[in-house]
């Protein structure tokens, strides 16, 4: 059964390119991003894993741990990592789960039989410190993911988990946010000392509260 927003991210133990892990222990009190790859030595995945290693400091600034998955064994991962480092001019600096038995892939519903019965789709799970699923994305195997968008999503998720705001279309960190409808104007005056502007009773903008 597919994981839904608000579900607990299932725990598992697995071998990775950096040794054996218990997933929940690996995350600790951090946010997490788990993202899957169809298989090793594939071109789109090579670019994705390389790019994530380059922007890992941005995830770390946000208290996010990243971990990848591919349905091949550890030895294969290690050879592939060498290729990624060479071709993407980087150094893969996070673990890649070895899921040859597809245990984790099935646990997280990463195999969509109508697309392929043997390989995972490009799944993404953003997981909060409470181990709950905060966001899911599913791409076909042929389309590389936008990891800058995942940074933007994390900024929104972390902000909206702390304040009674939502983020509008195409929002970026530092831009105005929207006060959620459940907050009255009276309460909004107390919660948002920077003030707010009302476009419609249900559409009220306020400067980003944590800036």
TrEMBL record:
<comment type="similarity">
    <text>Belongs to the peroxiredoxin family. Prx6 subfamily.</text>
</comment>
<dbReference type="Pfam" id="PF00578">
    <property type="entry name" value="AhpC-TSA"/>
</dbReference>
<dbReference type="Pfam" id="PF10417">
    <property type="entry name" value="1-cysPrx_C"/>
</dbReference>
<dbReference type="InterPro" id="IPR024706">
    <property type="entry name" value="Peroxiredoxin_AhpC-typ"/>
</dbReference>
<dbReference type="InterPro" id="IPR013766">
    <property type="entry name" value="Thioredoxin_domain"/>
</dbReference>
<dbReference type="InterPro" id="IPR019479">
    <property type="entry name" value="Peroxiredoxin_C"/>
</dbReference>
<keyword id="KW-0575">Peroxidase</keyword>
<feature type="domain" description="Thioredoxin">
    <location>
        <begin position="3"/>
        <end position="159"/>
    </location>
</feature>
<keyword id="KW-0049">Antioxidant</keyword>
<dbReference type="InterPro" id="IPR036249">
    <property type="entry name" value="Thioredoxin-like_sf"/>
</dbReference>
<keyword id="KW-0560">Oxidoreductase</keyword>
<keyword id="KW-0676">Redox-active center</keyword>
<dbReference type="InterPro" id="IPR000866">
    <property type="entry name" value="AhpC/TSA"/>
</dbReference>
<protein>
    <submittedName>
        <fullName>Peroxiredoxin</fullName>
        <ecNumber>1.11.1.15</ecNumber>
    </submittedName>
</protein>
<dbReference type="GO" id="GO:0005829">
    <property type="term" value="C:cytosol"/>
</dbReference>
<comment type="similarity">
    <text>Belongs to the peroxiredoxin family. AhpC/Prx1 subfamily.</text>
</comment>
<dbReference type="GO" id="GO:0051920">
    <property type="term" value="F:peroxiredoxin activity"/>
</dbReference>
<dbReference type="GO" id="GO:0045454">
    <property type="term" value="P:cell redox homeostasis"/>
</dbReference>
<dbReference type="InterPro" id="IPR045020">
    <property type="entry name" value="PRX_1cys"/>
</dbReference>
<feature type="active site" description="Cysteine sulfenic acid (-SOH) intermediate; for peroxidase activity">
    <location>
        <position position="45"/>
    </location>
</feature>
């Amino acid at each position: 059964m597919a994981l839904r927003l608000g579900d607990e991210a299932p725990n598992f133990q697995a071998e990775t390119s950096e040794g054996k892990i218990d997933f929940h222990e690996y995350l600790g009190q951090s946010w997490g991003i788990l993202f899957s790859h169809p298989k090793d030595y594939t071109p789109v995945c090579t670019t994705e894993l390389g790019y994530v290693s380059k922007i890992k400091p941005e995830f770390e600034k946000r208290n996010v741990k990243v971990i990848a998955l591919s349905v091949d064994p550890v030895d294969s991962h290690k050879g592939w990592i060498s290729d990624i480092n060479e071709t993407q001019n980087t150094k893969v600096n996070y673990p890649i789960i070895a899921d040859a038995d597809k245990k984790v892939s099935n646990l997280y519903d990463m195999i969509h039989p109508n697309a392929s019965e043997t390989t995972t789709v490009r799944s993404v799970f953003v997981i909060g410190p409470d181990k709950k699923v905060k966001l899911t994305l599913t791409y076909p195997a042929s389309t590389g993911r936008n990891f800058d968008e995942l940074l933007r999503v994390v900024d929104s998720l972390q902000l909206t988990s702390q304040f009674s705001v939502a983020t509008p279309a195409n929002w970026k960190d530092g831009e105005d946010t929207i006060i959620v409808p459940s907050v009255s104007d009276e309460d909004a005056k107390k919660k948002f000392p920077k003030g707010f502007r009302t476009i419609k009773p249900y559409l009220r903008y306020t400067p980003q509260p944590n800036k």
